[in-house]
């Protein structure tokens, strides 16, 4: 039998094991460190994402709190207004834009060639601009002349009452022009109810239609309500087309609360159509039905107030 001689052993010696030990320890340390490295990586990744998300959320909150109109202004450029889209107040323009534009006589009226007595002074003044189919009109409203009447008229102006087409329905040459009934019957119903009279600062009675100098009681351009008895003032007005002594101003419900100012205002009313006179639109029908197509066809030359606004005010 041939015997085989072994040239090496399959079991490592102690010397060899001692050489492998550092490598093994190093591998064990690396394996132990891997989870921590990965955890740190994901922590930083999550932290970064968290800050990004927080920034986005913060931005969203700011956007949510920001008014929609402001956002739209930044995102959408403002388009210019086209014809017909302009502010309605821009179409109501008068030569007098401030109380400072008034003459001294208009600002502080006193007894003289125009006024039969000196009107009440001071208080609140409101300069109103109205547009009519014949041109612009300025009126100065005096609170002290008739506190309740002045306030009622100004409340109508502030409500845009006169922007709904108000016909100058009863204009009598050399006397007065009556207006106030609205083209919208709903507004007539809302504003026509009577309210208490103001004290009359004009001399009353048939013997006081003019003073000792011959100055008529109700001056050209005076504005008052078209009342028909005690506490009957509502939504109808009169303006004197000339100084007159007939009717106007002789009763508490006809006390003036303001007057026309500026030559342009008197010029406008001189152009208002007076051909229908006392035979203008029936007041009852106009009040209940408003301005209908039938009325326009029946009274094609009728003039209208198309808007009023307050342009200045002052307390003296």
UniProtKB/TrEMBL annotation:
InterPro entries: Cyclophilin-like_dom_sf, Cyclophilin-type_PPIase_dom. This is PPIases accelerate the folding of proteins. It catalyzes the cis-trans isomerization of proline imidic peptide bonds in oligopeptides By similarity. SUPFAM superfamilies: Cyclophilin-like. Residues 124-275 form the PPIase cyclophilin-type domain. It comes from the Eukaryota. Residues 63-91 are annotated as: Disordered. Residues 71-84 have a biased composition (Basic and acidic residues). The chain crosses the membrane at residues 20-38. GO terms for molecular function: peptidyl-prolyl cis-trans isomerase activity. Keywords: Membrane, Transmembrane, Transmembrane helix. The keyword NAD does not apply.
């Amino acid at each position: 039998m041939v015997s085989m001689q072994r040239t090496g052993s399959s079991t490592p010696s102690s010397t060899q094991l001692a050489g492998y030990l550092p490598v093994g320890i190093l591998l064990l340390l690396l394996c132990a460190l891997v989870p921590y490295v990965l955890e740190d990586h994901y922590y930083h990744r999550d932290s970064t994402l968290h800050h990004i998300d927080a920034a986005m959320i913060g931005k969203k909150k700011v956007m949510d709190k920001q008014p929609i109109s402001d956002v739209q202004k930044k995102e959408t450029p403002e388009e210019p207004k086209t014809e017909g889209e302009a502010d309605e107040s821009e179409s109501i323009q008068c030569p007098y834009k401030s109380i400072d534009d008034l003459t001294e006589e208009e600002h502080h009226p006193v007894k003289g060639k125009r006024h039969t007595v000196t009107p009440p002074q001071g208080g609140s003044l409101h300069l109103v601009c109205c547009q009519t189919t014949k041109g612009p009109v300025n009126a100065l409203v005096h609170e002290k002349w008739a506190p309740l009447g002045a306030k009622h008229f100004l409340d109508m102006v502030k409500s845009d009452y006169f922007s709904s087409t108000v016909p100058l329905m009863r204009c009598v040459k050399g006397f007065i022009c009556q207006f106030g009934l609205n083209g919208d019957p709903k507004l007539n119903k809302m504003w026509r109810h009577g309210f208490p009279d103001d004290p009359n600062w004009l001399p009353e009675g048939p013997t006081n239609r003019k003073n000792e100098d011959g100055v008529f009681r109700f001056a050209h351009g005076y504005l008052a309500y078209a009342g028909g008895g005690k506490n009957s003032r509502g939504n109808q007005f009169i303006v004197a087309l000339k100084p007159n002594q007939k009717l106007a101003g002789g009763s508490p419900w006809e006390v003036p609360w303001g007057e026309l100012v500026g030559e342009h205002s008197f010029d406008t009313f001189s152009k208002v159509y007076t051909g229908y006179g006392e035979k203008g639109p029936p007041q009852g029908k106009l009040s209940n039905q408003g301005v209908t197509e039938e009325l326009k066809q029946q009274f094609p030359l009728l003039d209208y107030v198309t808007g009023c606004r307050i342009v200045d005010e002052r307390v003296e």
